[in-house]
């Protein structure tokens, strides 16, 4: 990547110093930190206060307070993240109920502290709009519904998919929504207020991977704070700050540059470090397009240890939603797949290994135009539509391409530009007009995309891959000066006020009678 960057910079007539790397390595090696006493530091950190008597200490802390607990606090605290990469974080928990309780606790404390709704008994007067992933897992949604109704006690609840919420918040009617988060990136085409099911893609990489890769690159160049450890709370916050301040995707800013930062740790004097960077500030965010540089080794650890996939009560097969675009992404990563899920043998990690094989279908071929029927007999017959779900057991290229075990064993991580074009090709289904519509309204939201030059770089990459549509490709941002990190929640609040959403609210009485079965009738998409 370094060599390619030099070639690209020279072709654009940019100056490239031959010994840039040696300059920054030598500077970083010989520059000691400057110590600043805590009372002379105007930006000193307010650490979370822990009572002197351990018996008076709180049983738990959430949010920013949890990240600002001193490392040597008495009693000691352990930090839990109940969600990782958009999935339940099963590797850190022994019991399923502890995982669910932590999620409920985090939401409950956020409502009490951020919204000042201190009395939980008053929450029955409120309705809750809950944003779920486009490519969700059924267990997650049904468990969330139970938590909102039983544990938090809301009067009514409705669900909205995140890409639809983004378009509601930004005022788009048709868009390809790209949500770049901290640990996952989701892509989905939205048309006339509906998510196109077969265009949904969920990648397990995001801004946190860029942070980790940036720090690894800096350590390779003798970063002066060599003891940085992202498992320490204050080091993790420092690394996020360094990424947001110094990383860029503007090629014109690449040259040996001098920066500084302050290390603030509880019970220690502040240390001011000076360091130099060269191309690391651009190569780390380029990992979105070269994801092999990210460390993905632990992301599938203990997957399905506590929470199994959802199964159809009548047919017995898995019934989590599927997407032909996501199947195509998995096929790109692991092109040899089992036939109809028949496998034999056992791998070292306990998963079944595929025996009979077939090659995955062409990514951009039209997916099965045969007439489809809904998986459930509830409601009226489904339209003759490519996005109508297929009964389990029927042959379908979109859903039978990959066996369930392969979906759990293969981590969906590919280049962002390839993923966007895959989503659009499956959403437009070879319709040139729709393809142009989606390419002209690619909307990027989320905190992971808040890197200078991100939108322009993405636009250039898409134009290189699809030159025939170059004049149509436009990367849009949320209008009206909306913060891209909050546009989805803005859309959720708009959705909750619309008159047309009355049918999607789930009330307490009907939930007590029917439970999670209500989701078949109440969701604004095919549950």
Automatic annotation (TrEMBL):
Record-linked SUPFAM superfamilies: Actin-like ATPase domain
InterPro entries registered for this protein in UniProt: Actin, ATPase_NBD
Q: Which stretches are transmembrane?
A: none
Recorded superkingdom = Eukaryota
Q: Which Pfam families match?
A: Actin
Stretch list, region Disordered? 371-391
Indicate the family of this protein.
Belongs to the actin family.
Q: What is this protein called?
A: Actin-like protein arp8
Top-down, what is the taxonomic lineage of the species of origin? Eukaryota, Fungi, Dikarya, Ascomycota, Pezizomycotina
Coding gene?
Answer: ARP8_1
């Amino acid at each position: 990547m370094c060599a390619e960057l030099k070639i690209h910079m020279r072709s654009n007539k940019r100056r490239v110093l031959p010994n840039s790397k040696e300059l920054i390595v030598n500077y970083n090696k010989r520059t000691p930190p400057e110590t600043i006493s805590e009372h002379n530091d105007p930006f000193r950190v307010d650490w979370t206060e822990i009572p002197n008597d351990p018996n008076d200490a709180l049983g738990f802390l959430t949010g920013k307070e949890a990240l600002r607990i001193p490392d040597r606090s008495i009693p000691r605290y352990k930090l839990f993240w109940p969600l990782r990469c958009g999935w339940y974080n099963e590797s850190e928990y022994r019991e399923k109920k502890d995982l669910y309780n932590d999620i409920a606790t985090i939401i409950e404390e956020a409502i009490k502290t951020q919204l000042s709704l201190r009395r939980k008994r008053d929450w029955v007067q409120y309705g809750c709009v809950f944003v779920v992933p486009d490519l969700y897992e059924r267990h997650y949604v049904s468990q969330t519904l139970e938590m909102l109704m039983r544990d938090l006690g809301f009067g009514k609840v409705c669900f909205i998919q995140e890409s639809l919420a983004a378009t509601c918040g930004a005022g788009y009617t048709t868009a390809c929504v790209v949500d770049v988060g901290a640990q996952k990136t989701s892509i989905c085409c939205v048309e006339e207020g509906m998510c196109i099911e077969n265009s949904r893609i969920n990648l397990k990489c995001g801004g946190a991977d860029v942070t980790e890769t940036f720090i690894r690159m800096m350590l390779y160049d003798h970063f002066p704070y060599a003891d940085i450890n992202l498992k320490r709370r204050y080091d993790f916050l420092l690394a996020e700050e360094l990424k947001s301040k110094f990383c860029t995707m503007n090629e014109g800013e690449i040259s040996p540059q001098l920066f500084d930062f302050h290390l603030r740790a509880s019970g220690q004097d502040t240390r001011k470090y000076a360091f130099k960077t060269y191309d690391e500030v651009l190569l780390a965010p380029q990992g979105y397009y070269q994801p092999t540089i990210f460390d993905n080794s632990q992301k599938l650890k203990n997957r399905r240890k506590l929470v199994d996939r959802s199964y159809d009560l009548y047919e017995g097969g898995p019934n989590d939603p599927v997407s032909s675009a996501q199947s195509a992404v998995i096929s790109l990563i692991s092109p040899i797949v089992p036939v109809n899920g028949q496998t034999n043998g056992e791998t070292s990690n306990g998963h079944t290994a595929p025996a009979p094989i077939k090659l995955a279908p062409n990514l951009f071929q039209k997916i099965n135009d045969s007439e489809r029927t809904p998986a459930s007999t509830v409601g009226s017959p489904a339209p003759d539509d490519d996005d109508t779900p297929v009964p389990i057991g029927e042959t379908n290229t979109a859903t039978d391409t990959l066996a369930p075990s392969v979906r759990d064993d293969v981590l969906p991580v590919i280049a962002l530009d390839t993923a966007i074009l895959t989503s659009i090709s499956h959403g437009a289904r070879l319709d040139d007009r729709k393809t142009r519509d989606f390419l002209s309204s690619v909307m990027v939201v989320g905190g992971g995309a808040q890197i200078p030059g991100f939108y322009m770089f993405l636009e250039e990459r898409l134009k290189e891959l699809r030159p025939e549509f170059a004049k149509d490709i436009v990367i849009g941002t949320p209008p009206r000066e909306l913060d891209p990190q909050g546009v989805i929640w803005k859309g959720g609040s708009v959705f909750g006020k619309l008159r047309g959403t009355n049918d999607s609210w789930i009330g307490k009485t009907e939930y007590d009678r029917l439970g999670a079965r209500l989701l078949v009738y109440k969701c604004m998409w095919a549950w």
